Structure formats: structure tokens, C-alpha cells
């Protein structure tokens, strides 16, 4: 089946068609292209993800890919094998089969009569990952990639592990994948076999969060798909995009440093979003920037893109530390190369009087053991542009932490890059965690988190080969914080806060540990940037895009986030409750296809202040797809707890058609802890 729509602006949309691979598997695709492309072939742009081109990313795809087609490109949006209306099964992220399919897709696209033979690949998040991974396989027709909110290292910077600590978002993302992958192919496109296909997918469904929880070290599982394993494998130009509120930005400076191909990057103030929709503001004319990129590398236009600064970044100013920030003040700065010669390392000692100072004090051991619920001001690991997700006033957590403050600054101080802590540290337990926060403290005492990091101290030397700590033994440990861009104003203070956990961001260590820091010897190293005359010039136009997908809102969205403490039972509780998917938008109907969708997600994370084994996590989800004559509902529940020896993880999934149960799955696993 092929559904074609023609637009008045000479763009033709092919709503649905199949691309049949050599093994007979059909991948479902949607395409926008110039009306005359079959007589005047054009380059192609591929986005290849599992999030359903029919009723999942439709609202995002239409204004972006239609825009590219209006500028002389064929834009193709393909569902991965086992997702959407594509055949087959999806059994994990970034499997060799997925990447091999991507290589075959590019060859198929390049051979079509409407294609000039030049192909670009782009995507955000999953699509940002796999365009880099496919590029490393060197398909001949692939000429450039554009990767947004992605990583080069699947262990170091993804939603499963951080610093060797288990991110609680591992369960969140695993539950979402259960829900997403439980949705059936649309029978209007797939045809009569849709129920059989649905049943096969449900019967084969992996227990997603357990897949990733079983790999607690940076082993071969994580090395696969991590392009940092072989930088030289990528031989095409790369455009990287990220945001300070997103969780994947650390990869951008690494790739700028290590890739040897033409490359450039933009880091804005944004969450996990394409920059034309960027929040916090300012959004930029990202689609115009993308077209310039494609024009240079797919059409051969000598438009100067390859002579632009290697990095443009939003250097952030102080902002009130509240959970909802629709805009963040700052200015654009440019670095011609990376690492930048305009950045120098400034050392500040963590001294015995709890001051940050240029010179060291006499050495003094200082001990901290935070209550296990410290972290309630941390915000979400990955900002998605939702209300309440950003870190709030850090004084809430600083009260339970070891804090070092600098003197009020006489002049502004800019930093750009990754701050580091060089610590002399010991633990009273063989497995322990450290959480470090860098904050900008205003004259009134309000503390804005600028950067942070968590580290499982058994991973102090290696994520591949962790080693237990010897209690009482002092170690020298380097903690590299997240990359950031910030300007500390005159009169503000720089603060470092150290805690022994970071709940609800990470799962606690098996035992409640104390850490001893040697003050006077330990130090903070800041990447201090020298201001440049051109700072503050805005190189970007206002956002442009093609018309939005016709959509009707059928219900109000809702987002709730709260942290409470039960003083009777001595438990801290963190709850998020969202109606309207990750973004809290309520039920929406795509009017062109008459299909409504909604997702509800509730998380409850609870812990006692002194008992790691008290930690519990429960997530429940409900997803509906509806139109006259078709009514699908997916219900998912996942839970997690742990003993000192093992993680206990369980889940249920039930799929309904017209209110009647169609299939049900249950999982329950005990997974041994490996120095986590």
C-alpha cells in the first residue's frame, strides 16, 4: 500500500510505503520530496528510529521533513525492524541487525530514480546514536550526518549508567520501551495480518530494563555501538547538536576533539529537543542551519559551513533555581577549535575551613555521610522540556553535604568545558558512591546547580574492571563533572558540595557509607574561558519550519512532581505523575488519520534515610490508541528493590483490544550486584 498526498508548494508526501530488504523484511517508511524529483533527482535525508512514523513522531516529523523537501531534498522517515508498521522483532537497542538494515536502507535510497545518489542521515536521541553508528560502517552513499542529543559512549553517557552508578531512569526507560513496543501496527496500513504480527511481538517482548541491568560493567555489550571505540571509522562530516539541560552533552566535546573529519557543534540552553523547538529559550533557526549543512555536503555548495567555528555554545548566566525555566539568560560564544586555546585550567583548593581558595590550607580529614534521600533538589537526569524537571535551589541538599565556598568574586568568571575534582578520599565500606555538585551561589544565598557528577568509587580507575575499596585506605580519585558553560557574576560565590548518594537519580550503594575527604590537598579544577570581543553576537536566525500536523487536543495535560517526608515511618517519597506522555500534553488526535493517543506515567520512589535496602521504585503506565472501530490500550507496571547482594526487578504488561485482554506478559528476575 502506498498513500500519496500532494501539497501546493510543490512537495509530495508519500504517507506510507514499504522498503523490502534482501531477507524479505519490509520496513515501513514515510517520505517528503520535491514534486519533480523523479525527473530532477535530489539528495536524500534519512531518519531511522523505532517511535512510529504513523502516530508516534508524526507531529515532529511533518514540519521538519516537509521543510527539507521544500529546500530540495527527499526526506525519508523509516521505522526500525520490529517497530511501527515494519516487519520483524525489535529485541534491544542498536543491535547489529539494526545497523546492517541502516546500511542497506542507504543503498536502497541512493539507487532510487528520485535520488541523486547522495544520502545524509540524521536523528535525535536513538536516531542521533544510530546515524553515528551507521556512519562508522561506511556505507558508500552516506555523505554526512547530523546527530542531535546523542553519545559516543553507550556506558558513560546514556540512560542506564552514570559514573558506574545505576540510573533510576534505567527502569523508567525500560518501562517506556515495554509500553511503546506493545503497540500494534496500524491495521489501515499493515493489513489483515496485524493481529498475528502484534501477538508475535508481544510473545517475543524482552524485559527491557533487565537487559541493561545485567551489564553493570563497561563490557563488550556497551562497547558495541560506542563510536569512541574507533574514531577513525567515521569518515564523513559530522554536525553535533545538544543542550545544557539534556543529559548527552558530554559527548560533544569528546567527539570534537577526537574525530578527524570536518565537524562542528552547537550547544544551546535546551533540553532533549530539536533546537527549532528548543526549551529553555532561546530556540534557533535549526532547520536553516541543517539545510546549510546538507547543501554543503550533499550538494557540494561552497557556502562556508566548513569554515565556521567548530563550537558555538550558549554561555549561561545566573537564573533563579526553580524547577520550571522556560528561558535561560546568557549569550552565544564561539570557539574556532576544540580543545580551545582560550580556555585555561584554574585550581582552587578545598580547604579545612570549608573555603575554596587559590592556596592550600593545612591538610585535615573531613567526613560526610549524607542521609540516603539527599538529592531531592537534583531534578531529572534528562530534561525533556517539561514543567518542574530542572534542579531547584541546592541549599536543600547542601544542608546534608560537605560544602566548600569560594569568596565573593570581584569580577565575572566564565567557564566552558568539564570541571574536575582531584580528591584524596577514603571510605568505610568496600562499595561507596560520591555525588559532587558545582553551584553558583547568589548574594542572597540561593544556589543554582551549574554542573554535577556521580561516581561509584569502585569504578575510580576503570568502568570495565572495577575494584572494591579497602575500608580506611586513602585513594586519589579524579571526578570529571558534566561539561557546562556558565558565567559567574561578580559578587557571586562558587560552591562545591559533596554527598554520599544522590536519590532519586541513582540507586544507593549496598551499605550506607561514610567518606573522608582530605581537605587542603583535594582541589577543584575549573575550565576558565577568556572573554572574546565577539561574545554575545547571535549567529542564528529565528526558527522556521513547514506547517504543523493538524492536531486536536482532546484533554488537558497534567504534570505533577513532589518530594515528601513521612516522619512517622521515616521515609522520603518522590512522585511524578504525568498525563500526556513524557511531555504532559494530554490526549491528542492526529486529524489526518483520525487517530488519538495518550500516555500516563506515574513514578514512586521511596527510601529511608539510613537503610539502602529500604529503597523501592514503582512505575505504572497506560497508553491508548483510538479511532472509530479501533481501540488499543497498553497497561505496564514495573517495580524494583534490592538486597545488598542482588537487584530484584519485576514487570507486567497487558494489551487490550476494545476493552478485552489480548495478551499478558510477566517478568521477575533477581540480578546479582557486581560492585554496584
Task: Please provide a written account of the structure.
The protein is mostly beta strands. The strands form four sheets. Strands 14, 15, 16, 17, 18, 19, 20, 21, 22, 23, 24, 25 and 26 form a 13-stranded mixed β-sheet that branches. An eleven-stranded mixed β-sheet has the order 1-2-3-5-4-6-7-10-11-12-13, with helices on both faces. Strands 27, 28, 29, 30, 31, 32, 33, 34 and 35 form a nine-stranded antiparallel β-sheet that branches. The longest helix is centred in the first third of the chain and has 15 residues, at 96-110.
Explain the layout of strands and helices.
Blueprint lengths: L2 E4 L4 E10 L5 E9 L7 E8 L8 H13 L3 E6 L16 H15 L4 E10 L1 H10 L6 E7 L12 E2 L2 E2 L2 H13 L5 H4 L3 H11 L3 H6 L6 H4 L14 E6 L7 H8 L4 E6 L17 H13 L12 E6 L13 E6 L7 E8 L4 E3 L6 E5 L26 H4 L3 E5 L6 E5 L2 E8 L5 E9 L5 E10 L18 E6 L3 E5 L4 E7 L15 E5 L3 E7 L21 E3 L4 E9 L4 E9 L8 E3 L4 E14 L2 E17 L2 E13 L3 E12 L2 E13 L4
